[in-house]
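debug: dumping io for the single-chain case to check the tokenizer round-trip. Nothing else runs in this session.
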Amino acid sequence: MIDTALNKDGQPQIITGELYGKHFNVFADSMRKAAAEIDAEIYIGAIVIHFPPSEAWNEPDKKWNEGLFKEIGNSADFYVMHNYFGSQTNIKGILNWAVSETKKNIDFIRQDIANKNAFPKPVALTEYNIGSGTTERTNSYVNGMQAVVLFNELIKNNFGLSARWLLITGETGMYYDGSDANYKYHPHPEFYYCTFAQKFCGDHSIAASSSSQDILSYATRFSSGETGVVIVNKNTTEQVISINSAGVGNNYYIYSFTGGTDNAPFSQNVYINGNGPDEYQWGPYNDLLSIPANKYTIENEIKFTSPGNSVQFILLERGNNVVTSVDEKTPAAINEFTLHQNYPNPFNPSTKISFSIKEAGFVRLDVYNLLGEHVATMVKEKLNAGVYERTFNASNLPSGLYLYKLVVDSFGEAGKNFLVNKMMLLK
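debug: decoded output
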């Protein structure tokens, strides 16, 4: 991002959204021309402010979006925001901040786009850091926990892209670059969490929720049918977790991440299924990818203990079984009568829509435009309990926002059990 430019008199001038927008169009045109000359594809993003003018600490930010949207029109491929998620000092605050800030930021940007009649685009978080304050806190396993929460919240809130900043810098990056030669370029705890977060992230996100304020739950489904579940225990004490899910097989597998007892409560070490740090490492680096998962039989329930301030990465085998907990007091990650977010989104020209039902019933899945006009019927039949997926092809439709509605008549109240989601077609 440019901080200053020269005005018509050759004097330094503070960059505003309007001035940035003018520079942006020149830059975008020249870069696209250069890319075309070498037959390359290029996507160019424009920086936007992700908070209200009343929260801005400098004058340019207060009118940045207004000037930017006015100048660039439809010339950007996506919008860019920056955030550092680091103003909290206790563990719960650090984790909760990743939840609340992510939604607050994207909600503001999308509403600001609508208010200013700007062109809707995907939003990319291209510069962010995790953690704040002392080096001990920034490099702790809590930083890894927050990374897991943040990644999943970005997916949940449909960000187009995220890019970690400060991969290696001094003592506080993801990789150590300080003065101690023994630890040179070795990964801090967040590396271990990020590695497994990637491995347990499926092809598309599905709905998950928890009955406990101390438990965060996320779920994704792989194209091969398995379900990846992530549980984050924000409490200092252990919690018994019971997972309700449709579309599971016979077994599930768990990797449990915890911190050590050093530097309490911000341990610099991470343990994976009880496997601790190697020499001159902050985690079990040497055997990381060969650590076995803990395997359990599903039978009639999926239940396990989550240690205080921990993360569990769970894989549920594919299948047609439906598991429902009988203990309503147990915190649960729930995935039953659910309409999942389509994938990919935005899409062109086709996308996949999946849903799950906990008992047999008559199911309708319809697509509408924003005028409420019926566009397509994806499902209109009686289905058994399970997880289903349909492909929606919009090659004959114009770009825009569409709604897809799932109606399940299985509880004696025809038409009252329905869910609606949005999807964006960009051609």
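debug: round-trip ok. The first helix runs from residue 17 to 37.
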